[in-house]
Design a protein that fits this description.
single chain, alpha+beta, Alpha-Beta Plaits, 2 domains, seven-stranded mixed sheet, 7 helices, 20 strands, about 25% helix
Length: about 290
C-alpha cells in the first residue's frame, strides 16, 4: 500500500496576473522547492512537480498526514506573500492510500486519481482524506479527522467516505456539531430556502435543480451562478448535492466557517447549513439555507 499526497497552491492564476509570468514562476519554483524538502523530511518522495503543486508518495499514512499538517502550520505561523504583498499563500491538499502502479519512477492508478480529486475538492488551507487513511492511522492521529460523510469523487462510481483534517486548535465546537449531524438518523425531508423561495423534497420527490435559468426549481439571479448550476436528489438513502457549474459550489455544515468545495463533484447533505453557489460565502453571495428533518 502506498500513500499519495497532492498539494496545490490556491489562487495561482490571480498571482500570475498580478506579478507577471517571470516573477510568479520564480516565486512558485522557490516555494515548491522548499515544500519538497519538508515532504522529504517526513519520508516522502516527490514523484513530480505540477507547476503550482506537488505529487508525493509515502510508505506510511501517518508520515503523509504529519507532513501535510506541518506545511499548513508553517503557512499559518509565518505567512508568505508572493511579491511581498497580496493575500498569504495557502495550499489545498488531498491524501489517499491504496495500491499504486509505478513505471519509471512515475505512479498511476485509482489511488493517485483519488488523491488528486480530494485536493481539488479541498478549500484553502484544508486537508481532505478518506476512510483508507483513517483506518491505518493510530488513535492520536485519528482524533484530528472529522467525518464529512460519503462523497462521489469525479471519475469514481462508488462513494468515498471523506474526512477533513482539523489541524488547527479551537475547532472542537464545529467538530462536535459535525459529529452530531453525522450520527443522527437518516432524515426524510430536505427544506431549502433562498430569499423568498422555498422548496421541500423527500424520498419520493424528483430532483431539484439550482441555477440562473428560468427553468430551475430554485432560481438564483447572479452572474456567478451557472444556468444549470447544481442538482439535489434522493439517492441511496441520502440527499445528494451534485455540482455542474463553471465556478463551483461551497457547502457550509452547521456553524462551521470552512466549506466543502464542490467542483463537478458531489456530497451528501447532513444536518443543516448553507449552500453558496459560484463563490465563497460572503456579503451578497447567492445563498441557499438547508435543513433536514423527519
Amino acid at each position: 500500500m502506498t500513500t499519495v499526497v497532492f498539494a496545490d497552491l490556491v489562487g495561482s492564476t490571480s498571482m500570475f496576473e498580478r506579478l507577471g509570468d517571470e516573477t510568479a514562476s520564480r516565486f512558485v519554483s522557490q516555494l515548491v522547492g522548499a515544500l519538497s524538502q519538508v515532504f522529504e523530511q517526513h519520508s516522502g518522495r516527490v514523484v513530480k512537480l505540477l507547476g503550482d503543486g506537488l505529487f508525493v508518495v509515502f510508505p506510511q499514512e501517518g508520515d503523509a498526514l504529519a507532513a501535510c499538517i506541518s506545511i499548513q502550520k508553517r503557512f499559518l505561523d509565518k505567512p508568505i506573500r508572493a511579491g511581498g504583498s497580496g493575500a498569504p499563500v495557502q495550499m489545498q491538499m488531498g491524501i489517499e492510500s491504496g495500491e499504486v502502479v509505478e513505471i519509471d519512477g512515475d505512479c498511476f492508478g485509482d489511488t493517485v486519481n483519488s488523491a488528486a480529486r480530494l485536493a481539488d475538492l479541498a478549500g484553502a488551507a484544508q486537508i481532505l482524506t478518506t476512510q483508507n487513511v483513517w483506518s491505518a492511522l493510530g488513535t492520536m492521529q485519528r482524533a484530528s479527522l472529522r467525518s464529512l460523510g460519503p462523497m462521489h469523487l469525479r471519475g469514481r462510481t462508488e462513494a468515498s467516505h471523506v474526512y477533513r483534517v482539523e489541524w488547527q486548535t479551537g475547532r472542537d465546537e464545529d467538530a462536535t456539531m459535525m459529529g452530531r449531524s453525522m450520527a443522527s438518523s437518516v432524515p426524510q425531508v430536505l427544506s431549502l430556502v433562498a430569499g423568498e423561495q422555498s422548496v421541500q423534497i423527500d424520498a419520493r420527490s424528483l430532483a431539484v435543480s439550482i441555477g440562473r435559468g428560468a427553468g430551475a426549481s430554485l432560481t438564483l439571479n447572479d452572474p456567478r451562478v451557472s444556468r444549470m448550476h447544481a442538482t439535489l436528489e434522493w439517492r441511496g438513502g441520502q440527499f445528494v448535492l451534485s455540482d455542474a457549474s463553471s465556478y463551483g459550489t461551497w457547502v457550509y455544515f452547521g456553524n462551521q466557517s470552512e466549506a466543502v468545495v464542490l467542483r463537478r463533484t458531489e456530497c451528501y447533505l447532513v444536518g443543516s447549513g448553507q449552500i453558496s453557489a459560484g463563490c465563497e460565502r460572503q456579503e451578497g453571495s447567492p445563498l441557499i439555507s438547508f435543513s433536514l428533518g423527519s
